[in-house]
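Our collaborator T.R. sent over the components below with a one-line note: 'Predict the complex.' Nothing else. No constraints on interfaces, no templates requested, no preferences about which chain binds where. So this is a plain run: every listed entity goes in together, and whatever single assembly comes back becomes the starting point for the next discussion.
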Amino acid sequence: MSGDRSRSLFEKAKEVFPGGVNSPIRGAVKPWPFFAEKSEGAYIYTVDGARLADYVLAYGPLILGHRHPEVEKAIADQVSRGWLFASPSDVEVALAREILRHVKPGGMVRFVNSGTEATMTAVRLARGVTGRDLIVKFDGCYHGSHDYVLVSAGSAATHFGVPTSSGIPASVSRLTLVARFNDVSGLEQLFENYGNDIAAVIVEPVIANSGVIPPKREFLTALRRLTSSYGSLLIFDEVVTGFRLGLGGAQEYYGVYGDIVVLGKIIGGGLPIGAVVSSREIMSNLTPSGRVFNAGTFNAHPLSMAAGLATLRVLEREPVYRIAREAAKSIEDNLREVLDSIGTSYAVSRVESILQFYVGVDVVEEASHARRANHKLYGLIHEKLLAKGVFITPSNMEAIFTGLPHEGEVLDNTVEAFRSTIREVMRH
Ligand SMILES: Cc1ncc(COP(=O)(O)O)c(C=O)c1O
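Returned assembly:
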């Protein structure tokens, strides 16, 4: 619960940061965000003395929970060897090799510092390779905060009412065509009209930024078919789903493969990271071997590399995916039971360890359905859960994440908190 110390820190923060925060969603926690003091396992401890079971997991990266001992040790070991060299280090090669073992289309990697940078680089690469300008994105997908993709974006952009940001020149946003997720005939029409000018389609294979919206199988296969037949590239933004739905991400999960895969979040173990993965042929277009420019002072930062490598090794060895899936399933089952017993219309979407629930709608297959849900009620549920020591995202347009530490007592308490909160809020 956000107490007096957090409140006074937030007052100071508001003097130095727009809205008091450095990323908008953090400001969505009402009446003010809690300030974290430390964290361990499933829990964040606040400066007000509260202990919160964390189901945000930093919006995805912390699938192993907070301060997993192996990740902590890898970071500390790397610190003792130095943390920035402006020259390659062995740990970046090791992480790339680990990623390439699991992520198709294999080939090569470019490490950057965020998912935003990675999708920006992927789009530029696709334009450079194809010599075309148009890209297609889907309503409600979020691909980071750069100009190419901030059109009809989900996530905090929708939560704060700016799905299409101001400050983006019309001449830029005109190059980004927006289609409806899961709408095969709309996509076919779009390709019929513009197909020969489309450099790439960028998509979250599972939308995790309008709550959670799973793809229909025929939608993913249509994406693959249409991009291939028109010579466009298919960019799978697996910043959330990569190494979360399994080691091979959404591609392996659904058996549909893109031309360029964008990764982030989990592959950095909680430190800043982004990555573009594609075939040797496509990747060799990036500088310095090719003419599509990308560079970064912090690219392949040794601390991110070390934390990511340690994280992937735990994922390869431990039953993380099973534990995370069972936790999410348990929350889903209980949500369904309590919402059924109340007799309201609702939808629960879950893919492995990402889930979200929507009250007031029956089905959520595209972003407009998610936008129609009762967000006010969701916000109230979030607030009451927080008061009971359970932290879920404050926005119905984001996802709830589970991970390795979510079993036993913490999960039992969480499920109970969900049940009692929903009864309290919805019986009035
Ligand atoms: C699917 C997806 N792509 C890209 C991004 C941008 O990543 P970052 O916040 O690291 O810039 C996000 C962030 O949440 C995301 O969910």
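Summary for T.R.: The chain has a mean pLDDT of 96.
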